[in-house]
């Protein structure tokens, strides 16, 4: 397996030398400064690739292997194939990436909000911090800050009581922080930051979009873009919903193995692949991760390896250590290594959402993406690979 690392570019808190010291060989990056919906230029992609791959004397070479992500404009999620201009722009970005010999693109199809948490520095018993999704705080935001029309119907009486108590306990700065965390787009998000009023307006635009329609729009998007990907030797890898269930009354259509099976059946192109994120899928107890890895072994073009831990209310969870939580990482890696053997080629993976710990507690970091927590996670994953007799690929 090839060891990847998500890098946010030249202004990131984590440097390329930090990546080298962690032991990764492959970079996962994107042109985050380009506005959503605007086509990437070949020159801009080539400039970033040169920055990553122009190895200083005496340094370990790195390669830019995966783009994460080319954001899919909101119009595509709402209108599907009818959003022709937006899809053409996306294809232009894909072609710019392919021209620079990057053959994997990760993307997601979550409407309005991307990956969602309520806390970005939840303190663990060790003193390290982790990102967390607290169901009561989420409901407090939905019911009492966002005040989404019709939200009450999505919560039981007991849920509403706990949400009220959580909201009443928040100081003004707590309300502001929760709003920023949910509405202002976390690092790597492929949705735009929103005010509360803008959030409501965006939700209103999805009134007629149910799960069947959102899935149809995703299939229409894939039908339009996979021929270009296939012609250029690019694999598109769809990231699971995070968390893998509806939020804010919005449907989500990449939350289970059956969701992916439906997409692969509808668009059988080999360019239509999967980003196997164990943390996102692992939030659901009914997702058997080793079985999903086995089922889609020939479709997994990229893997995010992290673990989440469901709490007393299983709708709440936090990011655990990579080898703890609700993910059997040894079993998952056995399946991925077996898949490599059948395919005859390595799978790119990266550690994901490390804890903020040690020196990183005193430094500015991107939530979920500190250097030391991810270094620890990658070392643990590499240890499993060595233990099962599968050394990482250089």
Automatic annotation (TrEMBL):
What chemistry does it catalyse, as a reaction equation?
D-mannonate = 2-dehydro-3-deoxy-D-gluconate + H2O
- What is the top-level taxon of the source organism? Bacteria
The biological pathway it contributes to is: Carbohydrate metabolism; pentose and glucuronate interconversion
UniProt cross-references to SUPFAM superfamilies, sorted A to Z: Xylose isomerase-like (SSF51658)
**What GO terms are given for molecular function?**
ferrous iron binding; manganese ion binding; mannonate dehydratase activity
Query: EC number(s) in its UniProt entry?
Result: 4.2.1.8
Give the UniProt record's GO annotations in the biological process aspect.
D-glucuronate catabolic process
Keyword line: Iron, Lyase, Manganese
Q: Which cofactor does it need?
A: Fe(2+); Mn(2+)
Q: Which family does it belong to?
A: Belongs to the mannonate dehydratase family.
Function according to Swiss-Prot or TrEMBL: Catalyzes the dehydration of D-mannonate.
Do you know which HAMAP family this protein is assigned to? UxuA
NCBIfam families, sorted: PRK03906.1, uxuA
State the PANTHER family in the record.
Answer: MANNONATE DEHYDRATASE
Protein name according to UniProt? Mannonate dehydratase
What is the originating organism of this protein? Lichenibacterium minor
The protein's gene is named uxuA
